[in-house]
Each structure stands twice: as structure tokens, then as C-alpha cells.
Design a protein that fits this description.
By secondary structure, the protein is mostly helical. The chain has helices spanning 2-11, 15-25, 37-49, 52-57, 65-77, 82-92, 99-106, 116-128, 132-145, 152-161, 167-183, 185-194, 199-211, 217-224. The N and C termini lie far apart (54 Å).
Length: 230
């Protein structure tokens, strides 16, 4: 199955896309075949319809972006118990070495909304790991499933206490908090006035808010006045 999959991926490669996406990922250690995401999603769905467990067990350690993303897509979307999915995620998330896999897989976790309490335990584990892309995975997962009445205070508290110095963590925090502003304007606006964010993350949060099409011109004007110097 694994060798056949590689053959299929190389047959669907787009060289221009490979060059473009490699520049976006900014990691020379990652090998990119150049298969576009919609094609990968289609392949993942076909794997899930068949013997997806064998696909996961046959995985060979490598730095091929498409293989890593397919693993994540299959784990996130497979028909299985949440306990089984959680175990696969525990094994998979530490292998992530780029932001794109983080963001796509975290947003595809099947039944995440139904098992928020159980998933929260995994999120805390990833955030406490101290490894950049695990922390990012945890933050983005918070953003995808927990910005609601029940969890908004926890989301903001987690973001405020996260001090990881990695660029991709800081950008995830800014993204998450900008989404908090869109959905909980007053609460997030107050938080930004008293927050413990470092200057880079704080200003990136303001930038993300201003880039949103869901924020009014008036609020964008207000947010711009809050930028820190330095």
C-alpha cells in the first residue's frame, strides 16, 4: 500500500505548486512532492473507506510532507472511537514539523465538538510539551473548537499564559485571539488592555484583527490606536 501510494502521489505532482509550497513552509528538511490539498483530501477519503489502520501501521519514517499530511487526515477523519483517535493523535502530533499540517489536521478532527472535554486533556498535553509545533497544534485546536460561551475564558487564559518563543506559536496565539475578538468583542477588547502578551504577539493580534473582514471599520480604527511601540 505504501509504495503504491508514493507512486500515485508522484504521478499527481505539480512542480510549480511544489516550489510555491516549499517556500511557504520555509523548512529545507521537508521533502515536498507537490500534490495539491484537494487531491490529498480525496486520497485520504479513499484510504478511510478501506483498510486505513494498515495504512497507518505501514508508515515509514520520513520527511515527506504529503505522507505526513495524509496520516493526519486519516487519523482525524477515520471511523473509530474517540479513545482510539486520541491514541493515534498522541503518536502523530509530536511528528509534525510545519504549520500547514498543524492547521489542516487540527481543523478536521471528527467528533471534536462531541468530545471537547476529552480533547481538552490532549490540548493541555501538547501545550505543555514545549515543542513548537505541538504547542501550535494545541492552540489552533483551541481556536477551532472552543471559542464558545463555555470555554472562551479558558481559551483567553491559555493564550495569555503561553510564553513559548517560537514564531509559529506566537502567530497561532495572534490568530486565536483575533478569532476571540470576532466572536467575543467586548471580552477580548478588555483582555487586550490588561494582557500579558509580549509585544510581538500583541501587535500581531491587533494586525490579525484588522485584517479580518468580520471586524467593523470603527473597531479596526480603535484597534490601530492600541499598537505598542518597540
Amino acid at each position: 500500500m505504501y509504495e503504491n501510494l508514493l507512486t500515485e502521489l508522484y504521478s499527481k505532482a505539480d512542480e510549480n505548486y511544489r516550489i510555491f509550497h516549499k517556500r511557504l513552509l520555509a523548512n529545507e528538511e521537508i521533502e515536498i512532492i507537490g500534490v495539491r490539498t484537494p487531491i490529498l483530501r480525496s486520497i485520504a477519503k479513499n484510504i478511510i473507506k478501506g483498510d486505513w489502520q494498515s495504512f497507518l501501521s505501514e508508515y515509514e519514517e520520513n520527511n515527506i510532507y504529503e505522507i505526513t499530511l495524509l496520516r493526519g487526515m486519516v487519523i482525524a477523519g477515520a471511523k473509530c472511537s474517540f479513545a482510539q483517535r486520541a491514541e493515534y493523535l498522541r503518536q502523530f502530533v509530536p511528528t509534525i514539523n510545519n504549520w500547514a499540517v498543524c492547521d489542516m489536521v487540527s481543523g478536521d478532527i471528527k467528533d471534536a465538538g462531541k468530545y471537547r472535554q476529552e480533547l481538552m486533556g490532549l490540548i493541555y498535553m501538547w501545550i505543555k510539551s514545549g515543542r513548537e509545533f505541538e504547542v501550535r497544534f494545541g492552540i489552533v485546536t483551541l481556536m477551532k473548537y472552543y471559542i464558545n460561551d463555555e470555554y472562551i475564558d479558558k481559551v483567553i487564559a491559555v493564550c495569555d499564559h503561553e510564553k513559548h518563543q517560537g514564531y509559529y506559536v506566537k502567530m497561532a496565539l495572534a490568530w486565536c485571539l483575533s478569532e476571540c475578538f470576532v466572536k467575543y468583542r467586548s471580552k477580548t477588547l478588555y483582555y487586550l488592555k490588561v494582557c500579558n502578551l509580549d509585544t510581538f504577539t500583541y501587535n500581531k493580534t491587533l494586525q490579525k484583527i484588522c485584517e479580518s473582514t468580520r471586524v467593523s471599520k470603527g473597531d479596526k480604527g480603535l484597534i490601530r490606536t492600541m499598537k505598542r511601540k518597540g
